[in-house]
Amino acid sequence: MSFEAIFPAQLPEVLAAGERSRVVVDDALRCLRESCTGAGPIGQLVTWSWTVDADRTHTLLVHHARYGHWMPAGGRCGSEELPSAAAVRELHEESGLTGTLLDPHPLLLDVVLDDLDGVRARAFGMAFVVVADRNAALTAEPDQPVAWFPLGPLAPEGASVRHWARMMRGLAAVAETPRAHP
């Protein structure tokens, strides 16, 4: 895997998506503005699909071989993709499911300084809430099992506690506060 920066053709759309995030962690929006406008180091964009069933009682997780634990479907945003489309695509690639965005805007925006294939860079994360059919057949990628788990305060065994806690807080915020869509 080699380092790829956020793609210049998508910078305005990436910035617009980040500005519409419901939850912004620390100074992620400032960092995204700097990266998208050339005022700071560029970085990668990773999207997550926080997938829930129609009843919002279960979530879909993928056992990512690279990280060794269960976490939401996700991956790098492609060169000509909008962040929301990347989240839906990653869900499909990793589970075989076709999902529907609950909201076209990200629920979460965060940033970490990371070592990306030997390059010190910012890694931006955007999480989108996606609804999918829990009864549909799952098609996992090789060596990456996929399964539905009940939503609750405790992460399932082997799940990323960090991702689980953030997802649970985010999903609770969506349930508590309706959002007006421009």
Topology:
Layout lengths: L10 H9 L3 E2 L3 H10 L5 E10 L5 E7 L4 E3 L1 E4 L6 H13 L4 E2 L6 E9 L2 E13 L14 E5 L10 H16 L6
Parallel strand pairs: 1-7, 2-8
Antiparallel strand pairs: 2-5, 3-4, 3-9, 6-8, 7-8
Characterization of this structure:
The protein has 182 residues and is of the alpha+beta class. The protein has one domain: Alpha-Beta Complex (Nucleoside Triphosphate Pyrophosphohydrolase), CATH 3.90.79.10. The chain is 26% helix and 30% strand. The protein is built from four helices and nine strands, in the order αβαββββαββββα. The strands form two sheets. Strands 1, 2, 5, 6, 7 and 8 form a six-stranded mixed beta sheet that branches. A hairpin with a 2-residue loop joins strand 7 and strand 8. The chain is globular. The N and C termini lie far apart (38 Å). 38% of the residues are buried.
Query: Which radius of gyration do the C-alpha atoms yield?
Result: 16 Å
Portion of residues in beta strands equals: 25-35%
Show unreliable segments. 177-182
CATH topology-level fold name = Nucleoside Triphosphate Pyrophosphohydrolase
Based on the structure given, which CATH architecture is correct?
Answer: Alpha-Beta Complex
* Distinct helical segment count: 4
CATH class: Alpha Beta
Helix content: 25-40%
Q: Outline the biggest β-sheet.
A: 6 strands, mixed
Average pLDDT number: 86
Keywords:
globular, 182 residues, alpha+beta, Nucleoside Triphosphate Pyrophosphohydrolase, six-stranded mixed sheet
